[in-house]
Amino acid sequence: MTTAVSQASTWSTLRRGLAMSPELRSGLAGTLVLAFFATAGRVAVPIAVQRGIDHGLLVQGGPDLGAIAGVVAVTALVLLVTMISAYLMNVRLYTVSETALAGIRTRTFRHIHDLSMLHQQSERRGSLVSRVTGDVDQMSQFLQWGGVILLVSLGQLTITTVVMATYSWQLTLVVYAAFAPVVFVIRHFQKRLTVAYGVVRAHVGTMLAAISESVVGAAVIRAYGVRRRTESRLDAAIEDNRRAQFTALRTSVTSFTAGEWASGLATAAVVVVGVLLGIGGHLTVGQLTAFLFLVTLFVQPVQIATEVLNEAQNAIAGWRRVLDVLDQAPDVADPGEAGLDLPPGPIDVRFSHVRFAYPGGPEVLSDVDLAIPAQIRVAVVGETGSGKTTFAKLLTRLMDPTSGQVLLSGVALTDVRFASLRRRVVMVPQDGFLFDASVADNVRFARPDISDEDLYLAFAELGLADWVDGLVEGLSTQVGERGEALSVGERQLVALARAYVADPDLLVLDEATSAVDPATEVRLQRTLDAVTRGRTTIAIAHRLSTAQAADEVLVVDRGRVVQRGPHDELVRDPESVYGRLYASWLEQTRAS
Amino acid sequence: MLNSDRVLGKGFRVLGHSIREQPRLFSIGVAGSVLFSVLIIAGAYIVGAIIGHVVVPAIDHRHVGVAALAGGAGVIFGVSAAKVLGLFGRRLGAGAMQFRLQATYRRRVTRRYLELPLAWHHRNATGTLLSNANADVEAAFYPIAPLPFAVGTVVMLFVAVASLFFTDWVLALVGVGVFLALLGMNIVYSRLISPRVSAAQRLRAEVSAVAHESFDGALVVKTMGREGDETQRFAAKAGELRDAMIRVGRIRGLFDPALDALPSFGTLTVLLVGAWRLRQGAITVADLVSVAFLFTVLAFPVRAIGWVLAELPRSAVGWERVQNVLTATGDMAYGEAELAADPKPATLRFENVDFAYAATVPGRGPSGTSEPAPSLGQPVLHGVTFEVPAGRTVALVGPTGSGKSTIASLAARLVDPTAGSVYLDGVDVSDLAHESLAATVALVPQVPFVFDDTVRGNITLDRPGVDDAGAWAALRVAQAESFVSALPQGLDTTVGERGTSLSGGQRQRLTLARALAGGPRLLILDDATSAVDPRVEAAILSSLRDGGAGASVLVVAYRRATIALADEVVYVEHGRVVAHGTHAELLATVPGYADLVTAYEKADAEREREKAYDEPPANSNNPSATNNKGIS
């Protein structure tokens, strides 16, 4: 991750980031005008001091209170305008940037769902969550605080320079000469800071992973009595993170002090040169005093800009990570409006010379070429790693084949609009993920408009009414985080009910009842047979009871379909792949 | 919610606590800050003095002494050099203090996670625990970063006011007025902003929770075609967060320029009042310039007080959540008793065991600050009594949701019974030392957990006496040898979060090997081979049997072959032991058990009967049958 960070340059990231958020440009001209006024007011006080001293205090016959009062009144008015401009500018900036950030969040969220990485690399979900949370938050600080401050600081530098130059161009040159080296020092430290922050982020990642492991793995850590080991891993990760943070801070402070050195140098030089100029009659005391005030006004923005640039490294890094995600084209794209709807009625399936391999991996499916007629029940069996789950993923277009084509009812799957595909084709995955809500809400996920009565009826039709009745609060029972208040088998029952109410024309079951007891499974099988009649059902099975009940069995072995036919036919050859699988199954499940 | 006064008070107590914990770093930070602040004031006076004593006479007389001028410049530059020193002290002291406190509390919180029992973990959402150790610790010590700066500023304010009185009491009163106004404005600001910031913080957590859940359930979302609805759900939360942040922005946007401008108004007042005092002869031009300059340079540091105040409410909330973990009670104390370490199988006995999971609080949000009350929920086990005699294998059989996994957890003492006792070799497991318990019992859970570590680390867990040879032997028995040797770096391959992804079956076999490697005297398999194909499972089970691990085994199972390996079967239904005995006995006498284990045979028979009525079979005229030959 650290190496990826340095790939896109800061400026190109900023440019592309801004292009990605058109919201940020809305009303920009007005905001800049306000920023000008907000900044311009800052030089009012030094000017007031100068005019006060030269025209009010050091005049013949003692201080002229009237003149002073006039200067003060005008300056107060300017300050008031400045305040109001700054307030309006801030409100605009907050509104625009927060709107833009909410937009980025939502677009990134949607994009992540469109990518396949979520279900292919389930272990990296945590880092994807941070794309729509922490990474976007990092930008927010820069856009609202840093961005404005940088803008205001640049404005202040410009205006201060102009005002300084009107007092004395010679002294202005002196100030610039003193600050010139700062630019190089900051550049040098910026590079070091980028590296240091990269290290911090890597350590934060490691630390969060270690903490999460100690929480998620609580049961295993206790069962194996490995507390000390976990403690020392946590301690090391926490300590590494602390060290990295401190190193980054040290670099940042060192870079920050450059401004202070320059300020001391500039002030001292201004006094010396100013006095010499004054002696030559080119400068009044008031002008020199005002100039010294102006130097502090010059120093402030330089120091603040240094700080902001340091912070900006973080924001840019966050932006870059979000852009990295948005840049990945969905490997499985929705044809959208241009696509076709699946023809109405039962769905038949055709695999035309389909091959599949994960990028850089070996072929998982090799030249699968077959047709499955509508309205039949097919079981796909094979050993672990034979490619049967890949078959299900290609069928539901969670992935596209490396070559060849999958057709549903004669339409190429890649041409089918997602809206049509997801309504007509539903898959029940092995891990029946449940949301932290009630049983009813989880089933309703598939059909939001279903009534409570129909929901109960659905469970009843699946033969699960007594299971629902046995729940503490029936359908309103909360299932907990990821459904963990239910047993693994119970979660599968809810997931099955969810698919059932979706009422698809093609139902794909991926080991959907693997953790359910045999009696319940057989009962479900029978009720499923009844309720799925009239639609096409394809069940990935590792319990061969499913295969026995199917109209047809597809046997997958090392990425190829090696056998096909009804169970009774396939078992006749005991030497075949299926014959051996079945013999083993019998051995496992029947009285010995 | 707590009112803002109490929150502010709490926040100050957190600060006090932090200072007591890191007095040295705090002192370094404050010393640096005071040095810096004093130099700012000194700088103002020095500039004033140089103008009064060097510049004015020089320009008036059109002459200047080199020594005076060089001295003045030297002093100004020297002040800057000393300020750099102060800066380092202040910022590094503050940073070191903040990072150290964060690290210390992260260690304490995670230690506590490891000490607290599983029952406590069950009551607290994973997301909450993660944010307790991360975001909450961070929030608690957020005000530490500007703290030394703020303390230094307070010192500076006192010095400034004192010096003002020394110059002129009227100007001093102006100063006091401005400083009091600044302080008051900062307090009003932090009060107005803190509830808004808390609301935004809460929404931030909710946005994160929605994303977490939605990404976790990505497969379901995608297969149900609900990406659009999920995006809407997320967009609604993101929109609420946007609105909350804009509400924060309005306040911040108002106060920031006002706080910036206040010292400028002070300078103007000084100019006005100073001119009057100058006319009275009470002060000199140099005095007036110094005071005006002072106001300008003080404007920025005074903001530091505001930063601390603004962060206090968040800090107080974070601290409270962290304290909830640190002071959580209900530790599952381990005893002192040790079981004999000789390698013979252990006896496990359950006596009248009742168990109820703590009631989960419905609708508990991710930002829940208070620990849910550990009230008991619906009981899941009632008077469970059975025994696994030494060296025997007992199968635990029952329908889905009957309490089998709970029994497995109780046997490994991951949870304690609400009534009754569990005994290992006749000793109540709650009297056993943790090491002795862990060395005796190994549990393989239903859902395998793989550490973010190498394969070796995952198997040995650095337990004494488990070497590479032992790891390979365990992998062999668990039928994992071939896939592990095919991994790019063998035993050294990193798996888990940031390593190679393993399939469900591979994960299960890895965790099985982990259990076997420790040479347990009691092995508990909680449906631990469900993701493994029947043939692979058969191989594992026969290895287990033939390998003679010298262990008693409690196995949660549905498969007949697994049950056939058992000497005895315990049959549970609705949390009660309905029957125990040999498989044959139960098959003959317990209808529920017979239904469960003969489900497949019954289904076979049913199908045969249907076929007899339903000739010819439904698929004989299937067009696909002709396609068969085309496939290979």
UniProtKB/TrEMBL annotation, chain A:
It is a multi-pass membrane protein. PROSITE patterns: ABC_TM1F, ABC_TRANSPORTER_1, ABC_TRANSPORTER_2. It holds the Pfam family ABC_tran. The keyword Nucleotide-binding applies. Its main location: membrane. One of its GO terms (cellular component) is plasma membrane. It is found in: Cell membrane. Keywords: ATP-binding, Cell inner membrane, Cell membrane, Membrane, Nucleotide-binding, Transmembrane, Transmembrane helix, Transport. InterPro entries: AAA+_ATPase (IPR003593), ABC1_TM_dom (IPR011527), ABC1_TM_sf (IPR036640), ABC_transporter-like_ATP-bd (IPR003439), ABC_transporter-like_CS (IPR017871), P-loop_NTPase (IPR027417), Type_1_exporter (IPR039421). Residues 349-583 form the ABC transporter domain. Residues 29-314 form the ABC transmembrane type-1 domain. The chain crosses the membrane at residues 24-45, 65-88, 173-190, 202-224, 261-281. The keyword Cell membrane applies. GO terms for molecular function: ABC-type oligopeptide transporter activity; ATP binding; ATP hydrolysis activity. PANTHER family: ATP-BINDING CASSETTE SUB-FAMILY B MEMBER 10, MITOCHONDRIAL, ATP-DEPENDENT PERMEASE MDL1, MITOCHONDRIAL. This is Multidrug ABC transporter ATP-binding protein. It comes from Planosporangium flavigriseum. The lineage of its organism: Bacteria, Bacillati, Actinomycetota, Actinomycetes, Micromonosporales.
Automatic annotation (TrEMBL), chain B:
PANTHER family: ATP-BINDING CASSETTE SUB-FAMILY B, ATP-BINDING CASSETTE SUB-FAMILY B MEMBER 6. One of its GO terms (molecular function) is ATPase-coupled lipid transmembrane transporter activity. Residues 28-314 form the ABC transmembrane type-1 domain. Pfam families: ABC_membrane, ABC_tran. Belongs to the ABC transporter superfamily. Lipid exporter (TC 3.A.1.106) family. Residues 604-632 are annotated as: Disordered. The keyword Nucleotide-binding applies. The lineage of its organism: Bacteria, Bacillati, Actinomycetota, Actinomycetes, Micromonosporales. Residues 348-599 form the ABC transporter domain. It is found in: Cell membrane. This is Multidrug ABC transporter ATP-binding protein. It is a multi-pass membrane protein. GO terms for cellular component: plasma membrane. Residues 604-614 have a biased composition (Basic and acidic residues). Keywords: ATP-binding, Cell membrane, Membrane, Nucleotide-binding, Transmembrane, Transmembrane helix, Transport. SMART domains: AAA. The chain crosses the membrane at residues 25-52, 64-88, 140-163, 169-189, 288-310. It comes from Planosporangium flavigriseum. Residues 615-632 have a biased composition (Low complexity).
